[in-house]
Amino acid sequence: MPKWLNDAIFYEIYPQSFYDSNDDGIGDINGIIAKLDYVRGLGCNAIWLNPVYDSPFMDAGYDVRDYYKVAPRYGTNEDLVQLFKEAHAKGIRVLLDLVPGHTSDTHPWFLQAKKAAENEYSNRYIFTKTVWDAPPEYRMMCGICERDGNYMVNYFSSQPALNYGFYEVTHPEWQLPHDHPDCLKTAGAIKDIMRFWLDKGADGFRVDMADSLVKNDDEKIATAKIWRGVREMLDKEYPEAAMVSEWCHPDRAINNAGFHMDFYLDHYGNGYSRLFRYGDWGDRAAFNPNGRGSLEEFAVEYLPAYNRTKDKGYISFMTNNHDMPRVTAYLDRQAIKLVNAFIFTMPGVPFLYYGDEIGMRYQKDLVSKEGGYSRTGSRTPMQWNSGKNLGFSQSDDTYLPVDKSADAPTVENQSGDPDSIYRVVTDLIALRHKYADLHGNGELEFTFREGQLPFAFRRGGMVMYFNPTGKPAELEAVGSGDVVYKIGEAILDGSKVKMEAQSFLLVES
Q1: How many angstroms separate the Cα of 43 from the Cα of each of 36, 133, 199, 250?
Q2: Does 495 score more than 80 pLDDT?
Q3: How do beta strands 482-487 and 473-476 pair?
Q4: Distance separating alpha carbons of residues 246 and 262, to the nearest angstrom
Q5: CA 46 → CA 40, 161, 262, 398, 426, distances in Å?
Q6: d(CA 98, CA 260)
Q7: Mind listing the pLDDT tens digit for each residue in 455-484?
Q8: Angle at which helices 221-237 and 181-199 pack, to 10 degrees?
């Protein structure tokens, strides 16, 4: 386990929307390099970089055409290596985004696999035996190849699924078992891609759709075996490299598959959703001040998973990511401050999505860009200052429109505001670094009455009290101590913690 993860705080950068250094309207790698001091100033010491590989961008780069080449719109391989070097000089690690489950339908492997004549890539993807065979239980693209067969897709129609085989073979005329030599070669090809970028200075990978490899593998037994093989490779060859999975099943991802971290994602009705987003636009979320939410529905799911995985890896909370509406679409400004207080004091390795530190808004009703659809409104350009395009680019045609509201939050107008989300985020990150009890691992004990709000939790000598409701409330004090930080109005009064609506208190006991 890389020791650096215990005090890591990641900043997710969507490269096309972060900072445009050459005024073509699209963010780029040199733009990220130019803003490394900003990232470090937040207190973030690691970056997750969304895909920068060559791509036709039917799915914003998650349709890879060449894993070994940076997309020209972002720069060159040399630019990416320079990013690694300059980030490392500032104490910042960089994870790339790995897309192992599928490629673009323009990838050279797939162009070969589509051919009628058998070749070394014929089994790199999953094809049925004939064009007339299109089982409805699978997502198939039919009748568009020279080859007499239909191919399986992992997500969009332009993303053919790579072939890691089938755990349960139900159509032996075209399905290969997961231990078939050609399926093992697919896993080997992904390892080679990882080695290529790790040798150039990458610090690891966020793994897209990590559970999507072997098909008919409901319990993910064979899929986990592949990832254990990757973990063994990392432990032997790159022991400081880290992997975080897009899985949201820590028992499988951490305990079975060997990932160092697993994202706690917003799946409707799960614990993450119950905290921040549940109901009609968050009206039943625990952090909604209307008080209709419950902590219990989160705790019943999260705490057993945490206790089963805490000695092997980290469950990672995120403020948002590129696949879900920003939390500004669900909660008010004070609630968002409390959300950040929760995320940055909980165990695990937290991830901050670019722009969340300034309260960037989710822009509804944008026309889909590069397969974004409803996600497009969370992928708009970073808002730096009051200049043209809010400082993102000098181009007249930007990747997506910036927030045109008169009160659009920017780094410029938020960083100097003592009452801003930016101030809360940077304060909390600094406290997390300062106090070892707030680092990634350690014990966790919740205090709540039948799941009701408010609530508290203890981590070693630190106690966090939360009243996310819109009414004043009292909590029994968990021991005694000194107040370290607060949001809103809350006081420690003997054996009681008296809290006004939407308040937070951090106490060192």
Answers
A1: 11, 54, 27, 26
A2: yes
A3: unpaired
A4: 6
A5: 9, 30, 16, 27, 15
A6: 15
A7: 999 999 999 999 999 999 999 998 889 999
A8: 40
Residue 150's CB is within 10 A of a number of other CB atoms, namely 24
CB atoms within 10 A of CB 395: 15
Q: Are 490 and 503 in contact (CB under 8 A)?
A: yes
Sheet holding 473-476, edge to edge: 473-476, 496-499, 490-493
Instruction: Give the H/E segment covering residue 427.
Output: helix 421-434
Cα 10 to Cα 5: distance, rounded to the nearest angstrom: 10
Distance of alpha carbon 484 from the chain centroid: 29
Model pLDDT for residues 82-117, shown as the tens digit of each residue: 999 999 999 999 999 999 999 999 999 999 999 999
Helix (H) or strand (E) holding 462: strand 462-467
In sequence order, the β-bridge partners of residue 473 are 499
Instruction: Return the bridge partners of 151, or none.
Output: 127, 141
Which of 126, 139, 122 has its CA nearest to residue 178? 126
Q: Encoding tokens for residue 384?
A: 């730096």
Tokens of 3: 């020791």
- Residue-wise pLDDT for 159-216, tens only, equals 999 999 999 999 999 999 999 999 999 999 999 999 999 999 999 999 999 999 999 9
Label residue 91 left, alpha or beta by phi (over 0 means left) and psi (-120 to 50 means alpha). Answer: left
Q: Which domains does the chain have, with CATH numbers?
A: 8-99+324-436 (3.20.20.80), 102-163 (3.90.400.10), 443-508 (2.60.40.1180)
Residue 505's DSSP bridge partners are 465, 486
Burial status of residue 191 (CB atoms within 10 A of its CB: 0-12, 13-18, 19 or more): middle
Q: CA 8, CA 45: separation in Å to the nearest integer?
A: 6
Is the pLDDT at 307 greater than 80, yes or no?
Answer: yes
Instruction: Return the amino acid letter for 431.
Output: L
Q: What is the per-residue burial (b if ≥16 Cβ within 10 Å, else e) of 208-230?
A: bbbbbbbbbbeebebbbbbbebb
